[in-house]
Amino acid sequence: MTIVPVIISGGAGARLWPLSRESYPKPFIRLADGMSLIQHSLRRAAAIAGAGEIVTITHRDLLFEIRDHYGELAIGGLEHRFILEPEGRDTAAAIGTAAAEIAAQLGPDAVMCILPGDHVISDEPAFLAAVAQAVEIAHGGRLATLGIRPDKPETAYGYIEADGTDVVRFVEKPDLETARKLVASGRFLWNAGMFFVEAGTMLALMERHCPDILTDCRRCLDGARRAAGDGFMQIELAPDCFSKVRKTSIDYAVLEKASGLAVVPCDIGWSDIGSWDAFSRLSAQDADGNVLHGTVAAIDTKNSFVHGEGRLIGTIGVENLVIVDTADALLVAAGDRTQDVKRLTSRLKEEGHKSYREHLKVHRPWGTYAVLETGPRFKIKRIEVKPGGRLSLQMHHHRSEHWVVVAGRAHVVNGGDELVLEPDQSTYIPCGNRHRLENRGTDPLILIEVQTGGYLEEDDIVRFDDIYGRNG
Question: How far apart are CA 396 and CA 167, in angstroms?
Answer without folding.
Answer: 58
